[in-house]
TrEMBL record:
SUPFAM superfamilies membership: Putative DNA-binding domain
All residue ranges annotated as the Helix-turn-helix domain in the record: 14-63
The protein's name in its UniProt record: Helix-turn-helix domain-containing protein
Source species of the chain: Streptomyces atrovirens
InterPro entries cross-referenced by the UniProt entry: DNA-bd_dom_put_sf, HTH_17, SinI_DNA-bd
Database matches in NCBIfam families: excise
Domain of life (superkingdom): Bacteria
Pfam families: HTH_17
Length: 65
């Protein structure tokens, strides 16, 4: 994610919990335990948890503006 230039609002690309954790500099377990409290909406792909890139960007905008 470092060095990626995003269009306004981000994309619909799906990120794994590990990718989100790396981006936010927290552990993958923190993402799995806190995403509901943080208001991140997950996308289920079968049994797998994924997050839309634009939802993560929206969360960061809301939280840290």
């Amino acid at each position: 994610m470092v060095g990626v230039i995003l269009a306004q609002g981000g994309s619909y690309r799906l990120l794994t919990p590990a990718e989100v954790a790396d981006w936010l500099k927290v552990s993958e377990l923190t993402i799995k335990n806190k995403y509901r409290a943080w208001g991140l909406r997950p996308q289920k792909v079968g049994r797998l948890l994924r997050f839309r890139e634009r939802d993560v960007i929206a969360y960061l905008e809301r939280k840290y503006g």
